[in-house]
Amino acid sequence: MARPLGESFFERGAETVARDLIGCYLVRKRGQKLFKHRITETEAYTGPHDLACHAARGRTMRTEPMFGPAGTLYVYLVYGMHWMLNVVTEPVNYPAAVLIRSVDTITGPGRLTKTLGITGALNNRAAAVRNGIWFVKDDHLDPLQVVRTKRIGVEYAGPIWSPKPYRFISIAHRHTRPS
DNA sequence: GGGAGGATGGAT
DNA sequence: TCCATCCTCCCA
Fold first, then answer.
1. Residue A88 lies in a domain
2. pLDDT tens digits for range A12-33
3. CB A178 under 7 Å to nucleic chain B
4. What is the CATH number of the domain that holds A141?
5. Nearest to A17 by CA among A133, A138, A134, A99
């Protein structure tokens, strides 16, 4: 399988990265077990101007990972119980990220992290083999076709940013929750 | 120091 | 439709 996606892949706009991650693999190693899942749903959080992006409210302890290098993991707790897995995009000091919402057999960002054992322990670490979590592209497989919708659960971001079509879903998996 | 609210998911 | 559950951030 192809080698892990690195900084050059993630050091682009969050929309572009979110789109390109559809069809790529998320790989997780726990002990001797390797879990490889094809990514089917993502969302882009595009920067400090994006009112749905945590970084829109400034550089804080929580958002610090988003200011790090492309490919950094941003893992935070939502609703007091669900870990959300994000990967940071854009160059250092530009806070943007992509939320991994679903993979082939696991729908929902909270279920994804729970199933793969992803917690805040991985926050601010690089997506890399040495950390037991990384991304790969497989050029031998056909890329999945993609549709775009608005993002889930960001009504608070207001009439401009809430409807932005920054959610990407594989067509073959578009039953993955209505929007 | 206090309070509101959230990038969800499971039960009712 | 309800609510579990707790961290973050804003305000005083």
1. yes
2. 999 999 999 999 999 999 999 9
3. no
4. 3.10.300.10
5. A99
Helix (H, G, I), strand (E, B) or coil at A27: strand
Q: How many domains does chain A have?
A: 1
Model pTM above 0.70: yes
Provide, rounded to the nearest whole percent, the portion of chain A with pLDDT above 70: 97
A178 touches strand C (CB under 7 A): no
- Domain for residue A176, yes or no? no
* Structure-token pair, residue A176: 């993955």
Whole-angstrom Cα distance, residue A50 to residue A48? 5
CA(A119)–C1'(C4) in Å?
Answer: 19
In a domain, A177, yes or no: no
Diameter of chain A measured on Cα atoms = 47
A140 within domain boundaries: yes
Residue closest to C5 C1′ by Cα: A80
Whether CB of A110 is under 7 Å from strand B: the answer is yes
Place of tokens 């399988």: A1
Range of the domain at A132: 7-170
